[in-house]
Protein 1
Amino acid sequence: MAIVGYVSRTEHFSAAHRLHSPHLSDAENLETFGKCNHPGGHGHNYVLEIIVRGPIDQKNGMIANIEDLKRWIKGAVLDHVDHRNLDKDIAYFATRPSTTENLAAFAWLRLAQVMPAGMLHKVIVWETPKNKVVFAGEGVTDSDIQECTV
């Protein structure tokens, strides 16, 4: 049996958003999201950490080639969110609020489309140095993956 390990890659990006749910009234949005519901939106310098899991290859000693991991993260996530308005530039957020929870799920769903099956272990998104979300793909279906568009 192969030895299993984990590899983590951390990236940074900047994006704007407005916390606003199409499923709530304007008053409910203001009550739920407070100043983060401001119509002009606001921005964050996010930190994105991707953790992959797998057997350590006996020939090359790697779980995943870092160059592949960098390419997957850039193409599936960063190229779409960096210096963008999440609410206006990404179709996924047209029907759901651009919370950090949904942003982590978005990153997972996008990466699941380009990475080998079973390799993606966790997605961690820091909105601020004090607030982060960990998403491990629980509850994700093939339909969710196919419907995740930018």
Protein 2
Amino acid sequence: MDPKYLILNNDPDFRSKEIKDFLASSGIQPKTTFYRSPWQNPIAESVNGTLRRESFNYLNPLSEAHLQKELPEYVHNYYNSHRTNQGINFNTPIPTPTYLPVNVNQAKLKVIPVLNDLYHTYKRIA
């Protein structure tokens, strides 16, 4: 079997004895990025760091089932479809629809709550 690797940043949570023991017992070899070098692990740093800052600093999952319900909502209904990303020229990973320009008085928006009203997205309606 090929060795498994996990790229970790230098967050204190990842340096704990418990994490190191778990990784060793699972046959996973940690690869740690250099200090102050988040670009070495762009996926983990952007998704994990952003997820922690934007969600779990405000939302405490009550159970694993609660977490499994809330994570997809954040990722699919907000992070990938409405939150702009600097790495892709301030676009979203899933492109948003392009609407024809209208007068601001004629535009009607529907507010869509995400994560129990922590965030809101907006959709133009006819």
Protein 3
Amino acid sequence: MKAVIYARVSSTTDRQNTERQIADLTKYAEYKEMEISKIFEEKISGAKKNVERPVFVEAMNFCKTNKVDILLVSELSRLGRNAFEVLETVKQLVDEGINLYMQKEQFTLLDDEGKPSMFAPIMIATLSTCAQLERENIKFRLNSGRQLYIEKGGKLGRKEGSKKTTEQKQEEYKQVLKELKRGTSIRKVAKLCDVSVSTVQRLKAEFNL
């Protein structure tokens, strides 16, 4: 059985990574004796529409063109934050005869005969709608809290003095800057200095290197 892993985190910084998702789904695939055809990793907000998530689109196309048997994701939200988009993705998978496994929900879309159970669409619609409502509630509470904080005289944004000075950056990233001055490629600098590619790109632009 051929499987594809799609892993996504919302943050484009180093605060989040896809390692845990990939490790857990790989273990599941090995346990089920699946052959992992390819692993797709993406750092992009789940609030983006599916068509605006290039790696996700690539993963879906790969599954279709390579006759992949099952798509493995860590949870339903990896397929999108919008209930309608999640259902559209599920429909595409069903139409192509591609199964779906969601680790958090412990749910598999198709049965042994390759057909979705009569409860599968209902369950997915319910889960995705509840998740979307919860996100909207959290967003409302956060915005309400911020507004109350501002009304009481609070100020949002960085605290004064929290932003690093040019001198501090030069000292902290001196090796990065040194490699950039040598003409070392951005990806190689990131690897050599153990920092993210985005950090190197930001420093390169800031110091005109």
